[in-house]
Amino acid sequence: MKTYLLFIFSCTIQFCFSQLAIVDSTDNEPIAYATISFGNGHGSFADEDGRFQFSKNKYTDVDSLFISAMGYADKKLSTKVLPKILRLKPEVSQLNEVVVFAPKSGKFKTRKRKPVTHNDVFASWLPTVESEVAVLFKRYEKQPTQISKLLLPINTESKYKTKGKGKFATIFRVQFYENYKGLPKDALLYDDIVFAINEEADKVYELNISAKDIFIPKSGIFVAIQVLGYANSKGGLAQTKQYREIKTARGVQKISTSFRPLLPFTKKLINQNTYVRRIFWNNKKWQIFDKSYNQKSKLIQTGHHNYGMGAEFKVYEN
DSSP for 33-70? Predict the structure, then answer.
């Protein structure tokens, strides 16, 4: 079956574009949602089957691709000669020693951290594929705590007639990171949690993750949300250009595509617990979302420093 799939991948290369099949070098299994960076502050993702389409007509100034995925060694290749199948080598040094899956049985109480939301589009984060937003969660009253649901505030712009029209389906990914001295650091979960939100969603999207057995370490855990792109007609990740090129007096400017729904940020939370990073810039460095990140940000200037992500917990007895 694997050989047959690789043959299909090889036969789908067409004259106008190259289609890469990104696979594990040890077993030829597709690597879902691998990151493809263009080295100029922009990039995209492979789809759920590890496929990515590259066209020189679409990306005229891109001469190199940088491929990365969790648990694999990064790879750089020239766009002049793109392979049909790109194999990434597993890299043990990328694996994290922190144990996330620590299933626990016995009595538990259900507790909740309420999400904070609103429908003001001018106080909302514009999601792009280059950005990731992380929120810190700690154990409930220092007891063993499992995250059973994520409560994700969203703004589908339904209040605004001109902006709220039209159907869409956007694919998001949730990832988890250890809390290292107050900053997100190493990833704690390697299984992708991927889901889609469309224009019919309510102001809080409930994502059930109880089957993942995600327990919060004593130091806390960062939960991050990231846009992968729009969904195609079959529900998979659409292979589209993730930025626009606009001619200005200073030359051609590349503007990252923003995706619906928007993420409402709030000024009602007292403590600062939201961190952001740009996947294709600044070596993927996490930064706290305050004036030290960007003094010109309208969200920061108006005090909207936090993403009000909520959650439901199962809190166990010690």
Answer: T-EEE-SSS-EEE--TTSEEEE-TTTSTT--EEEEE-T
